[in-house]
Amino acid sequence: SLPDVVGAHAGKPLELVVRRGEQTVTLQPVPKGEPGEARLGVKFEPRAVGEATNYGLGQAVAEANRSVASLTVQILKDVSGLLKRVIEPKESALEQLRGPVEMVGQLKSAANRSIKDFLVLFAALSLMLGLFNLFPIPPLDGSKLVFLGAETVARRAIPARAQIYIHGVGMMFMLGLMLVVSVKDVLRKDPQPEPVP
Fold it and tell me: How far from 113 is each of 7, 26, 49, 191, CA to CA, in Å?
C-alpha cells in the first residue's frame, strides 16, 4: 500500500509521478519520521475514477463481502501495528488514535465530496467500531465473551462484585481515553505539506 511504500523511504527521496490536468510531473519528496512510520505530510483522499460499475444482486453481494473482508484485514493490520508501537514505542501510540471529533470531521469531508464517499466511510467506521467492540477490554462485549469463556472452563460463575469492579475500572479507563483523544483531535493540526515546485 502507499503508506507502506512511504514509510519504507524514511529520509530518502521518493519518486512520485503526479498528473496535473494534461501534464505529468515527477516529484521527489523526502518522507520524514522513523523507518516504517515516515510520512509525507500530504493528505490523500479518494476520488472516483472512470464510470461506476453496475452489479447484479448476486455480484453486488459478492463484491460487498469481498470489500468487507479486505477492509477487515486492513483494520486488523493497522491495529497490530498500533499494538506494536505500544510494545516497542518509537512514537507515542496515542498520537495515532483518532476520536469522535476526528470521525465527524472525516464524515463531513466525505459528505462534501459525494454521497458515495460518505456511505463508504460510514460503513468503514461502523466495521471498525464493531471490531473494536470485540476487544477483550472491559466494558466492551469482547470482555464479556472472555468472562463467559472463563466461567465455562471453571464451571462456576464469576462473583458479581468482581465483575462490577472490573467493568467499572474499564469504563473509567475508556472514558478517560476518549476524553484525552477528543481533546487531542480538537488541538491537532494536520501537518502542512512542503511546497511543491
Answer: 28, 27, 13, 21
Q: Calculate mean pLDDT across residues 148-163.
A: 88
- Give CA–CA dist 159/27, Å, rounded: 63
Please tell me the pTM assigned to this model: 0.52
Looking at residue 11, the DSSP 8-state letter turns out to be T
C-alpha cell at 177: 481515553
DSSP secondary structure of 61-81 = HHHHHHHHHHHHHHHHHHHHH
Residues facing residue 17 across a β-bridge: 26
pLDDT at 189: 53
Residue 151 CB coordination number (10 Å): 12
Distance of alpha carbon 53 from the chain centroid: 27
Residue in 180, 75, 61 with CA at minimum distance from that of residue 131:
75
